[in-house]
Amino acid sequence: MDEHYDAIILGTGLTECVLSALLSVDGKKVLHMDKNAYYGGDGASLNLTQLYEKFRPEKNLQQILDVIVIMR
């Protein structure tokens, strides 16, 4: 592994990833590391099942749509 870097970024959250990308595009040599075994920091805290449960449509979505149609 090289020993010279223009920047060392610790963490793989959104801010760190954007900073790393901007520096890299600017031609800087960047070492980007994280203490976790996964990528994404807090943004990677949901598995697929949890993501679906959090963002699935409401169970009563059809009732809501019926009310909207009646109001038109």
TrEMBL record:
An example Gene Ontology CC term for this record: cytoplasm
Gene3D superfamilies: FAD/NAD(P)-binding domain
GO biological process, one term: small GTPase-mediated signal transduction
A GO molecular-function descriptor: Rab GDP-dissociation inhibitor activity
Listed InterPro entries: FAD/NAD-bd_sf (IPR036188), GDP_dissociation_inhibitor (IPR018203)
Record-linked PANTHER family: RAB GDP DISSOCIATION INHIBITOR, RAB GDP-DISSOCIATION INHIBITOR
Family indicated by similarity: Belongs to the Rab GDI family.
Name by which UniProt lists this protein: Rab GDP dissociation inhibitor
